Amino acid sequence: MINERPRHFASDNYSGICPEAWEALASANEGHVASYGDDHWTERASNMIREVFEADCEVFFVFNGTAANSLSLASLCQSYHSILCHQTAHVETDECGAPEFFSNGTKMLLLSGADGKIDPSAIEPMVKRRLDIHYPKPKVLSVTQATEVGTVYTPSELGVLGEIAKRLGLRMHMDGARFANAVASLGVRPRQITWEAGVDVLCLGGTKNGAPVGDAVVFFNKELAFEFDYRCKQAGQLASKMRFLSAPWVGMLEGGAWLKRATHANSMAALLESKAEEIPGVRLLFPRQANSVFLELPKKVIEALHGRGWRFYSFIGEGGCRFMGTWDTRASDVEALAADLRDLMLAAD
Ligand SMILES: *Cc1c(COP(=O)(O)O)cnc(C)c1O
Question: Are strands 313-316 and 292-296 parallel, antiparallel or unpaired?
Fold first, then answer.
């Protein structure tokens, strides 16, 4: 029985396709329509994204987040420029150098800051560290919302970053692989944490939200979208049966499924957080604000949890473990995990 299959906590991309996206896909599978994005599903999905952001933005659909980030970053700068981002940013640590590759050599400049968020006071010193021709000229500020450690920037925090970027002549890019989780967590209008805060381009994640595949690139600054379609095509990111990338967006956005699903994912992480807090010896590594919980666990307990079949990442240093909630995580999954964790922590004492 499908409902009896275990849910894992490794990543929100372990989950399948949520019903709303699945139904839209099935509807899109009727008859022939024009290819390469010249179809009514793609038009409708683009218009719905414009409505969600209350903005006349340019929208493109690509296969994944790495492509969305690298191609959009490449369109914000020249090869001799540099991109400022947090040291834990996905664009720096998890994209195999794709942003540098697609921008033909752009350099990433790494900023620090607590809880995965860029410290605003770190930006200007990095930009002004050198003003001579030998330094790759800073051109873009890239932020991740929600961040890699499951925290979220508030509208005012983003506003501060946007102001600094504007004053220093930097364009602003947002990696929104988990943008829906951030909106659900903050309870804000999407515009408040994007273009109103100065974001020029957003990579809007669909996959982790419940779509089968595909992220959207949303240019609020339309001039920067100039010839972006060619960039996508050259990079192998122009889907010929585009309707299967765009239709899931129609399903997710219609009736607000994207936020409903993200709210659920966040609440499952919140449930795990509350259960974990009751277990002696378990330490929360970052404030839980979206759909991930980071726990510091003894090595023995990590191994024993893996031994009991739980999948989760333990990639942050020694003993740091990430548990993700997703759209189909059930409270019973969280309770079973928490019960095993409690057992093993008590045994390890
Ligand atoms: C998952 C993720 C991406 C996109 O990764 P792909 O595997 O290329 O789809 C981008 N940024 C962040 C923060 C992510 O978590």
Answer: unpaired
Sign of the CA dihedral with 233 first, then 236, 239, and 240 last:
positive
Cα(302)–Cα(323) distance, integer angstroms: 12
Residues with CB under 6 A from ligand 1: 64-66, 69, 90, 144, 148, 175, 177, 207
Domain ranges for the chain: 19-253, 257-348
For residue 12, give the DSSP letter. T
CATH of domain 19-253: 3.40.640.10
Higher pLDDT, 144 or 2: 144
- Each residue of 116-166: pLDDT tens digit? 999 999 999 999 999 999 999 999 999 999 999 999 999 999 999 999 999
Q: Tell how far the Cα of 64 is from the centroid of ligand 1, in angstroms.
A: 7
Mark out the alpha helices in the chain (DSSP H runs).
Answer: 19-28, 40-53, 65-76, 90-93, 98-102, 123-128, 155-167, 179-186, 228-234, 243-253, 257-277, 299-307, 331-348
User: What's the gap in Å between 65 CA and the centre of ligand 1?
Assistant: 5
Closest residue (by CA) to atom 4 of ligand 1?
A: 65
pLDDT tens readout for residues 66-82 = 999 999 999 999 999 99
Among residues 67, 36, 27, the alpha carbon closest in space to that of 247 is found at 27
Question: What is the tens place of the pLDDT at every residue in 182-194?
Answer: 999 999 999 999 9
Token duo for residue 318: 């020694």
Distance 27 CA to ligand 1 centre (A): 27
CA 239 – ligand 1 centroid, Å: 19
Given a contact cutoff of 8 angstroms between Cβ atoms, the answer to whether 145 and 176 are in contact is yes
Determine the distance separating the centroid of ligand 1 and the alpha carbon of 90, expressed in angstroms: 7
Residue from 94, 201, 209 to probe ligand 1 pocket by mutation (most atoms less than 8 Å from CB): 94
The number of the ligand 1 atom at minimal distance from the alpha carbon of 69 is: 10
First-to-last C-alpha distance (Å) of the chain: 37
CATH class of 257-348: alpha beta
Ligand 1 atom nearest 175 alpha carbon: 11
Whole-model pTM? Answer: 0.97
For 9, the token pair is 């906590």
